[in-house]
Structures are given as structure tokens and as C-alpha cells.
Design a protein that fits this description.
Strand order of the largest sheet: 1-2-8-5-3
Shape: globular
Structural class: alpha+beta
Helix content: 40-55%
Strand content: 5-15%
CATH class of the largest domain: Mainly Alpha
CATH architecture of the largest domain: Orthogonal Bundle
CATH superfamily of the largest domain: Cytochrome P450
Number of strands: 10
Radius of gyration: 25 Å
């Protein structure tokens, strides 16, 4: 029988329930361990994890999304494989997304992200967070019960990031549906192709492509305009597609950490004896609760790095091309760093030194937002209730809970959490303002069903959306004639709701005026 430390973390569904027992079994093999028959290292130590995350010269973040178990798209050769990584960057899963970028490209794009999470911007966003959380919690407490993950956590954090980024209100319901139906990153059952037309990133990317193109042509006094027209630190204007991918990644990834953190925190509030009463008596303790939950049950269990140069970790030689899994959860329970690391301690010293949000250049940019939104909604839940418990019919009694977790090697989060809510004495549960949910609930037509106002009068590269052209065999033939391979290019999925003239702004070299004019002539003849 395979011992626990040598089971396959990246495919074993049983490890989902209690990954911490697995991490401790691996720790028993040493701070750095190579499982038998595997071509990657596993790091459980706190100091070793910090050392690697801070060292961006010797380690690349290129495998952050695909994980350490996935094969590399090339065979590493020599003491420095930096050029090979960059030459194959688009062959890695999400290789051009922010979380996987290195060096200058990462610094440039990260500078744009940091502008969104300034204290003043978060302060302005807090008004929306307060109002929306108030509405959600009052409604849930009035009902006496709620399923926390889908009914509160996911819509709450989705609309908060939508408000911060300035997503138009009429598109927000569609975004909530996309997020709700999306598989988790690091899916144990296999990742979706990031370029597939039905991938949530591609669908959201279609919206962001329209936002960016519109805001560059018609700037407004909003955050989307600021992001679309921002300059890199070196003074250059970002490529429009870089901004599109940044926006869709921040939206897709930004909501996940907060939503899962809320569910994980609620488990401790409910099952730690006397904790919720202590928090109600002193709400100023909620931030300390969040930090200890981040340490014990952070939303991200692990990340990964690829050694791009020959280097060392302590006394151990690391060859260029070595894949490394960094167990953030293992580091946060390292007994060399934390006293009684498995125990929940609300007043734990130096608690913010945990690595739940990473460390170094790739520290989670949305960490300040996650802390704010989870704090506020927890404060509301405690304020409006006298008791919160799990529904024993769904989850079993305290001490023998039955919980289901997202099937992900990256994310630590519950699939569902059913709560029973007892209202506080004398609390008024009437919603105090017009429903934010209703104001944001007008769903646009899905991109794949987009139509053209000019369809009946003939096709046009200026007026007919790409989705319409792709559905007409004759129009598809015209597209492939002038733009070979376009109809089979999976990356074009993000642009299905746009016209070819709009797409030209993203790739002027491919979609020249001459080619578009010729396409118009052939389309008019159909």
C-alpha cells in the first residue's frame, strides 16, 4: 500500500478532504522532498518557501497555473534555460497571464494592477461593499438559513470586483453566471483549454475586449478608461490585448480567493467553541480571525516555480529545469516557524507573516481587497445574528462534519456550506435601500448568440459581429480566404462579439485596411 506521503497530490481526490495530513506526511520526509517516480520537488518549509518566492532571478513563475506535475513543453538543457522558457512561453498553460509572467513583463503589468488597489480606491469601493453585504445578509438572516458559497460568497465577491473594475451594471449578472459555472483553477479532473471558446476567461475576455476598445476610442471618467489608457512605468502604451487579458484574469482570479476565504472562515466561527460570541462582543477581533484562518486554511494551497538557472536551496543543489511545488499551506503550518502550528489561536504573534497571499514580486495584488470585503461581510453576519450554525442535516454534527471541497490542487474551498441563522434580538432585517442585485441583474445576450443589426441587409466588417459571420458557412469561407486559419483559431473566441474593424485595433498588422476592404467586397456578394 502506498504510504500517504507518496500518493499523487495532483490527482488524488481523497487528499482534498484533509490535505494537511498529507502535507505533514511529506514534511516527515524533509523540508524538500522528491516523491518516488516524480520529476518535481515538494517544499513544505516556511524559510525555504520564502527563499524561493523572493528569488525571481533563479526561479520562474511560468508554471504557476499548470502546476509542478505537468510536463514542460521543451527539454531543459544547460545551466540557464531562461531563453527556452521565453521561447516557449505560449506553450505553457496561461503562460502570458499575470500570475505566470517574469521579469520586465511582470513588473510592467503589475504596475498597472497596483494602481487599482490603492487605499483611496479601496475606500471608495467600500461604500459598495457595505451596501451590498448589508442587503445579502439581511435577506439571508430573515430567511433563517442560507447556502453561503453560492448564495452569498460568489455573487458578493464577483460584484465587488466588478464594481472596483467598473464593469457596466448591465453586464454584471452575466459575469456572475460565468463565474458560478466555471471549474476551479487546478482542476484535478483536468484543466480546460484556456483558448477554448467556452472557457470562462475567453467569454469574459470578449467583454473586456469591447470595454478596452471603446474606452481607448471614447475615454470616460471611470476606472475602465484609466486602465485602458494607462502607460507602463517606462512610458509605453500597453498592447490592447495585454489589458484585456489583465482584466479578465483579475476578474476571474480576484473573486476566487475571497469567496473561498469567506467559507473557510465561517467553518472556524461556527465550530470553534465560544468564538462567534467573542467576535460579536468585540468585532475588532475579526481582522485577527481572518489572518489566522489564512494561515490555517488559506484559499491557495500551493503554487509552483521552475528553476531557470542552476542554483541552491540551503545545501541542496537545484538544476535548471527543476519543477518545484511550494506548499503555502505546509509553510503556514511549519513547526519551525509557528508554535503549536495546527491550533487555532486568535491572538497569534506576528500572524501577518504567513504566506497565504504569497510573498515577493508575486504577492497577491488583491490581498487588501480580500481582507476588506471578507471583514465587512463577516461583521454583518455577526451583527444581525445571535447564533450561526451549520445545518446538521446537510453537514452532520459538530465534531463529525461532512464537507465537500472544490476538486482543485490549487484552491482550498468548499463546494457548499449550509448555514442556520438565528436573528439577533430586535434587529430590523428590512433592506434599507433599492436592491443592488436588481440594479445589476439585466443580463446581456450571451456572446455566442450575438446578432448583427445589418444581417438582413448584408454583411459588413464594420457592422456585423464575428459570431454572425462564423455561423454562416459562406461567410466563414470568405474569412478564411482573406485571413487564413481565422475560423479555426481558438484565440478568436474572445472577439466573437466584435466586428472585424474593431478587432483591427488589436492586430492592425493582420487585419489591414486592404484585407478588410477586400473582405467587405466578397461579403457584399453573398
Amino acid at each position: 500500500m502506498t504510504e500517504l506521503a507518496d500518493r499523487d497530490y495532483f490527482t488524488d481526490h481523497e487528499i482534498l478532504v484533509d490535505p494537511y495530513a498529507y502535507f505533514e506526511a511529506v514534511r516527515g520526509k524533509g523540508a524538500i522532498y522528491q516523491p518516488p517516480g516524480k520529476d518535481y520537488l515538494m517544499v513544505m518549509g516556511f524559510e525555504e518557501t520564502l527563499e524561493i518566492m523572493r528569488n525571481t532571478d533563479d526561479y520562474s513563475a511560468i508554471i504557476g497555473l499548470q502546476g509542478a506535475s505537468a510536463p514542460l513543453p521543451f527539454t531543459p538543457q544547460g545551466p540557464d534555460i531562461t531563453d527556452a522558457i521565453e521561447g516557449h512561453r505560449l506553450d505553457f498553460h496561461g503562460g502570458d497571464l499575470l500570475v505566470n509572467l517574469d521579469g520586465h513583463a511582470h513588473v510592467q503589468l503589475r504596475a498597472l494592477v497596483n494602481r487599482l488597489f490603492t487605499p483611496s480606491r479601496l475606500k471608495a469601493n467600500e461604500e459598495f461593499i457595505q451596501a451590498y453585504s448589508d442587503e445579502l445578509v439581511r435577506d439571508a438572516v430573515a430567511n433563517g438559513r442560507v447556502e453561503l458559497v453560492r448564495k452569498i460568497a460568489t455573487p458578493f465577491v464577483t460584484l465587488v470586483i466588478a464594481d472596483l473594475l467598473g464593469i457596466p451594471a448591465e453586464d454584471r449578472q452575466r459575469f456572475m453566471e460565468i463565474i458560478e459555472n466555471a471549474p476551479p483553477p487546478g482542476n484535478l479532473d483536468g484543466e480546460l483549454d484556456l483558448d477554448a471558446a467556452d472557457h470562462p476567461f475567453v467569454i469574459m475576455g470578449g467583454y473586456f475586449a469591447q470595454y478596452v476598445a471603446d474606452r481607448r476610442a471614447n475615454p470616460q471618467d471611470d476606472i475602465l478608461s484609466e486602465l485602458s489608457n494607462a502607460l507602463y512605468p517606462d512610458g509605453t502604451l500597453p498592447d490592447q490585448m495585454d489589458i484585456v487579458k489583465l482584466g479578465m484574469f483579475m476578474f476571474g482570479a480576484g473573486q476566487d480567493t475571497s469567496a473561498k476565504l469567506l467559507g473557510n472562515a465561517m467553518r472556524y466561527i461556527v465550530d470553534q467553541p465560544g468564538l462567534q460570541d467573542r467576535l460579536r462582543a468585540d468585532p475588532s477581533l475579526v481582522p485577527a480571525l481572518i489572518e489566522e484562518v489564512l494561515r490555517l486554511e488559506g484559499s491557495t494551497k500551493q503554487t509552483a516555480r521552475l528553476a531557470r538557472k542552476d542554483t541552491r536551496i540551503g545545501d541542496r543543489e537545484i538544476r535548471a529545469g527543476t519543477k518545484i511545488m511550494l506548499s503555502l499551506a505546509g509553510a503556514n503550518r511549519d513547526p519551525r516557524r509557528w508554535d503549536d502550528p495546527q491550533a487555532f489561536q486568535l491572538d497569534r504573534p506576528k500572524i501577518k507573516e504567513h504566506v497565504a497571499f504569497g510573498r515577493g514580486a508575486h504577492t497577491c495584488a488583491g490581498a487588501p481587497l480580500a481582507r476588506v470585503e471578507v471583514r465587512i461581510i463577516l461583521e454583518k453576519l455577526l451583527k444581525f445574528t445571535s447564533n450561526i450554525d451549520l445545518d446538521e442535516a446537510r453537514h452532520g454534527p459538530r465534531g463529525a462534519r461532512k464537507l465537500d471541497f472544490e476538486p482543485s490542487f490549487i484552491i482550498r474551498g468548499l463546494s457548499e456550506l449550509h448555514l442556520k441563522l438565528t436573528p439577533a434580538d430586535g434587529v430590523d432585517l428590512a433592506v434599507k435601500a433599492p436592491s443592488i442585485i436588481q440594479k445589476s441583474a439585466t443580463a446581456p445576450v450571451a456572446l455566442e448568440h450575438a446578432t448583427s443589426a445589418t444581417q438582413g441587409a448584408g454583411y459588413s466588417t464594420a457592422d456585423t459581429k464575428l459570431a454572425v459571420l462564423l455561423k454562416d458557412p459562406a461567410a466563414r469561407e470568405v474569412l478564411d480566404r482573406h485571413f487564413p486559419g481565422i475560423t479555426s483559431d481558438k484565440r478568436i473566441g474572445m472577439a466573437k462579439s466584435m466586428t472585424l474593424r474593431s478587432i483591427q485595433k488589436f492586430a492592425p498588422g493582420q487585419f489591414t485596411n486592404e484585407a478588410l476592404d477586400a473582405t467587405d467586397a466578397d461579403l457584399a456578394a453573398l
